[in-house]
Amino acid sequence: PTDSSILTFHTDASTPPGTSTVIITGTEMPQRKDGIEHSTQVVLIVPPPDFTIEVKPETLAVNPGDTVDCDVILESIYGFSSPCTLTLEEDSLPANTTYNFDPATVVPTDSSILTFYTDVSTPPGIRTIVITGSEMTRGNKGIEHSTQVVLIVAPPRIEVTSPNGDEHWCVDKTQEITWSSEGVPVPFVKIEYSVNGGTGWETIAESTDNDGTYAWTIPDTPSDSCLVRVSDAEDGDPWDESDHFFAIFLAGDADGNGKVDIGDPIYLINYLFQSGLPPAPFEAGDVNLDETVNIADLIYLLIYLFSVTHYYTQSPIKAGFEFIRLYWGFAFPDGSPSSSLKTQNSCGREDG
């Protein structure tokens, strides 16, 4: 002394469990009749074989009508090697839900897959389900441990996927309304639209198949505050609507006043020849629907508005240019504009 020693105990797999008090003595060397000797003790505990049980993942989410599973893991400690049966508290299950352990008997260390089977009528909610692993013995009470899993049955849900915001849909064109649904046990949905940000709604389809898609011919209701809503046709729940506004526009309504009139060709002339503001939405200026806003759209619009071939003996193209020449003379009394003629495609790229 002063010094120390490390005392190591080595047990065998056959060492019986229990608690022992071990005396340790230190004796002065060399041994003399009156040599000093002191003792102390250590308590040695040999635990019995045991096992632990856990679930991964600890939380499960499922839509009514679907299945979901988790791993039930039993781990051996202190040499535990007895088979264990797996059970759960059936009273904690949601209504119309069944389950299965595969396998139902496990020898640790090992695992089992627990699968829950829900029905479309399984009610939504959160349930805490207790799972127990029990040692199989002959007459004696075996070791038993429990864990738990949280089972979340999601409520029925509908989600509008298109239009979902920022789309520009042209009057009289056909567009696809699309949506997804989970856990919805009814076969039909109702589809509506709003042009005032959801203040009022008009029916598109009172009841249509819940197949996730509907072909809609866009009505003549120009607005930049449009929404679409899809709901359960029976009672309106669940439902969902577009996350953001989309626009319904009238082709040729370049100035955005909700109608096609003389102001629109003037607006296009200002845009094309005087660096004026582009149509908003830009697609409204694409009158001939060739994905480009240029002089062809202006001529197309003039023919539509004035039937210029009725007022002029020359061809529609020449008549259109005559209208431009007359307007040009009014807008540019000193001659042609200094800026060059420009066209843009629907992405806003200048082509010259």
From TrEMBL:
GO biological process, one term: polysaccharide catabolic process
Gene Ontology MF terms: hydrolase activity, hydrolyzing O-glycosyl compounds
SUPFAM superfamilies, per the entry: Type I dockerin domain
Gene3D superfamilies found in the cross-reference section: Dockerin domain (1.10.1330.10)
Dockerin domain boundaries: 247-314
Origin: domain of life: Bacteria
Descriptive protein name: Dockerin domain-containing protein
